[in-house]
Amino acid sequence: MMEHLLEVNNLEVKFKLRTGELTAIDNVGFTLDKGERLGIVGESGAGKSVTGFSIINLISKPGYISGGEIMFEGKDLTRVSEDVLRHIRGNRISMIFQDPMMTLNPVFTIGEQMAETILAHKNISRKDALEISVEKLRQVHIPSPETRLNQYPHEFSGGMRQRIVIAISLLLDPAIIIADEPTTALDVTIQAEIMELLLELCEKNDTGMILITHDLGVVSQVTEKIAVMYAGRIVEIGSTENIVANPLHPYTKGLIKALPGSRGTGEKLYQIPGSMPNLTEMPKGCAFHPRCELAEGECFSKVPELIQRGNFRRLAACHKF
Ligand code: SF4
Question: Which domain covers residue 201, as residue numbers?
Fold first, then answer.
């Protein structure tokens, strides 16, 4: 059987509160192969970012991984030491955040930051590290990279800063990039450029990508596989083509209906009624039932399993299929 580059099984993340423990991620599982692109979509509070962060154990306290496994290159990342994780972060799996300043340090030049990142993982000279940095800046289309290496983050525009963050994420030729809403903080005109660049570089280097976003439109253009999350669980997962053309889960259907351009001109944009439940007040049964017009019977009492439904080549968690 072919081994996947990354395999997440039954992942569970909890938060310790004074009043008890709260399950933020429940029974989440997916795989990623070399060079494959997976989109994790859902509204704010669905658990997308917590899922992405947990892959390299960046969950901050009081959160912690309470169950499941994250298999990567023969190791279960939920069980390795902090030293091993530190080596994997940035080196084999790197992260791109929404705000470039979460990665960039304002008091150091771009060149210093890039060289330090390389030298923390590779035994090469500073001169060689700077040469690699120049090459990576060139790949993300930063003009005059030799000169710009000596500048500070504030001397770049938001779009340029995110290009630099992409260059940093690629410095050590990682196997996987996890991009958490990488274009949300940018101007609309720059968003498409940055997404195109990310796609171009992942394709060129055969890098796997996990794209975390609320924007199903972006995901449908960039990824090959989609996991739709709702209230800490995956509610539908399958090929992007199948899901976009023929969504099964009522929540996925709502997200697609809410895409700009999915309705006739002049018609108001559709919005899924209601909002994501608070994790402290999760509805019984299917968590989506208060917002679902098909809810009836066991929807109110039984959590639907994520399984293959009928002849559809994907998994969905809904009693109606
Ligand atoms: Fe709607 Fe019931 Fe399906 Fe949940 S299980 S999405 S409430 S039909």
Answer: 6-92+177-265
Does residue 287 lie in a domain region? no
CA of 288 to the centre of ligand 1 (A): 6
**Distance, CA 285 to ligand 1 centroid (Å)?**
9
Q: What is the DSSP code string of 169-236?
A: HHTT--SEEEEESTTTTS-HHHHHHHHHHHHHHHHHHT-EEEEEES-HHHHHHH-SEEEEEETTEEEE
Pocket test for ligand 1, best of 248, 272, 319, 321 (most atoms within 8 A of CB): 319
What is the CA(39)–ligand 1 centre distance, in A?
A: 22
Q: What angle do CA 10, 14, 16 make, to 5 degrees?
A: 160
CATH of the domain at 198: 3.40.50.300
Query: pTM, whole model, 2 decimals?
Result: 0.93
Atom of ligand 1 nearest to the CA of 295: 7
Mutate to test the pocket of ligand 1, among 234, 252, 294 (most ligand atoms within 8 A of CB): 294
Residues with Cβ within 6 A of ligand 1? 249-250, 286, 288-289, 292, 294-295, 299, 304, 318-320
Per-residue pLDDT of 16-65, as tens digits, reads 988 889 999 999 999 999 999 999 999 999 999 999 999 999 998 899 99
Residue 200 domain-assigned (yes or no) = yes
CA 44–ligand 1 middle distance (angstroms): 20
Give Cα separations from 302 to 87, 175, 274, 289, 298 (angstroms). Answer: 42, 39, 21, 11, 5
**Residue 37 belongs to some domain of the structure:** yes
Residues 101-120: pLDDT tens digits? 888 999 999 999 999 999 99
- The structural domain count of the chain equals 2
